[in-house]
Amino acid sequence: MKDQLIIFDTTLRDGEQSPGASMTRDEKVRIARALERMKVDVIEAGFPAASQGDFEAVQAVADAIKDSTVCGLARALDKDIDRAGEALKGANSSRIHTFIATSPIHMAKKLNMQPDQVIEYAVRAVKRARQYTDNVEFSPEDAGRSEEDFLCRILEAVIDAGATTLNIPDTVGYSMPQQFGATIANLIQRIPNSDKAIFSVHCHNDLGLAVANSLAAVMNGARQVECTINGLGERAGNASLEEVVMAIRTRQDFFQCDTRLDTREIVTCSKLVSSITGFPVQPNKAIVGANAFAHESGIHQDGVLKNRETYEIMRAEDVGWTTNRMVLGKHSGRNAFKTRMAELGVEFAGEADLNDAFYRFKQLADKKHEIFDEDLQALISEQSFEAEDEHIKLVALKVCSETGEVPNATVTILVDGKEMTGSASGGGAVDASLKAIESLVQTGATLALYSVNNITTGTDSQGEVTIRLENAGRIVNGSGADTDIVIASAKAYINAVNKLQSPEQRQHPQKGDV
After folding, report:
1. Among 10, 13, 94, 88, which residue's Cα sits nearest to residue 47?
2. Integer Cα distance of 295 and 311 in angstroms
3. Average pLDDT of span 191-202
4. Tens of pLDDT, residues 117-150
5. CA dist list (Å): 196 to 97, 109, 164, 183, 193
6. Where are the beta strands (DSSP E) in 131-258?
7. Element holding 393 (H helix, E strand)
8. Which InterPro entries match (predicted)?
9. Order of strands, sheet of 408-415, starting from the edge strand that comes earlier in the sequence
10. Mapped to the 3 state alphabet, what secondary structure does 275-286 carry?
11. What pLDDT, in 10s, does the model give residues 226-235?
12. CA triple 201-202-205, angle to 5 deg
């Protein structure tokens, strides 16, 4: 019988540390429910000590999730661990993940501590976490650049203190697969009490090796992998959950373990995370990219038609790719809408929220004949965007664009209930529209990213626009969706401006990296 490989998803914690990817409490719960449906073993819901907002989000996920273990991150500090323990009180199954840096450069330059002090802090942290749960994970931050002898010392000590999972992070994505795999094997062999804990890995993708390093670790005895949906994460991201899981599932001849995940939920979860964070999935992304199972070459097409296995090593259906299914239309009723939303993991706080979402659905159905699941997800994301700190609202937009003439846009917005109208010219309809909005709100922000993605197929597809604004060191993402791409762009810009003008809800202290 093969070993079980534990999948530890950190989309809600490390994934959220991507610049501009912060999620609201309700959005975290939606993603957590999707992860639970996929049968993810452990969901790292956040860093409770980072902010009150993050504490409440972890608490909400802990209360909502019943089948997966919910985890909170904590530095090796009493206040962090107590905060995590408090946030996780409502969980059916909880874990506290505590960490401290162990590389010479981190201990000397960041912590200003001697190695013996670091071990003392680690042991005390694990013992304190055991007061809240018997499921405690410890990470030696920057293990990839730590001395192996010191790793053996500190890991042996934390196992004795009660740690049940030892996570070895390649925090800066510096390791090579063969080297990283050998490190895992050596630690398991050299630590006398290694059989009392599960070894885990958490790899960053700075050199594009996060998945390769994770799989090398699994080959050498690791039985938990920390990863994120779509490889989301700060800098170049983390190991991609879908790639790790499908590599192991597809190559069962090679790996001596497997996961318990329902891989048919992968694509749905990927699209949900992309929609909420505003980070589109590149078309050639493995497993979840739009072209992942597309065949352009005539030779490839001929081979697939004769036998799928000639060029397909896994079935598209096994990861959730199916022909877009029309779930609802303009004649669908309120109950059918509510039922389908529940199947997608969306629950409404009350009748008012349901009525608002149903009204939006009817408006969309008047513009677009076929309504797919992706449309519904975008509709709910847009509703949540507008629900939080919406000081500015789009009232009307008129654009004039014709050959040989400079495009001009006139926009009317509500700013805290006061109507304002402005006009501007630009290089195109979108440029003119955004300049008209900026002339009224005057944020002075820099447009760092403008991205357009079609939500479904067809010329009547909704366009989903992501806009990233940067101002005084603060970065926010705005999203908007509409069948008219100019209107979607205006919505996305206004969404980003609302975020800029609201108090920052979450902080990402670099000392919180693992």
Report:
1. 13
2. 9
3. 98
4. 999 999 999 999 999 999 999 999 999 889 999 9
5. 17, 33, 7, 18, 6
6. 136-141, 165-170, 198-203, 224-227, 257-258
7. strand 392-400
8. 2-IPM_HCS-like, 2-isopropylmalate_synth_dimer, AIPM/Hcit_synth_CS, Aldolase_TIM, LeuA/HCS_post-cat, LeuA_allosteric_dom_sf, LeuA_bact_synth, PYR_CT
9. 392-400, 408-415, 418-425
10. HHHCCCCCCCCC
11. 999 999 998 9
12. 130
Token output for 239: 């190991």
Concatenated DSSP letters of 167-182:
EEEETTS---HHHHHH
Is the entire prediction scored with pTM above 0.85?
A: no
Tokens 């202290």 correspond to 509
- Tell me the mean pLDDT in the region 280-294: 85
**Annotated binding residues:** 14, 202, 204, 238
Query: Residue written as tokens 């790719």?
Result: 321
In single-letter form, the type of residue at position 345 comes to G
The 3-class secondary structure across 275-326, one letter per residue, is HHHCCCCCCCCCCCCCCCCCCCCHHHHHHHHHCHHHCCCCCHHHHCCCCCCC
The whole-angstrom separation of Cα 412 and Cα 293 is: 44
Which residues, in sequence order, are CB contacts of 453 under 8 Å at separation 6+?
Answer: 280, 463, 464, 465, 466
Amino acid found at 62: A
Cite the beta strand spans of 117-262 per DSSP E: 136-141, 165-170, 198-203, 224-227, 257-258
Binding-site residue ranges for Mn(2+): 14, 202, 204, 238
In the chain the first and final C-alpha atoms are separated, in Å, by 32
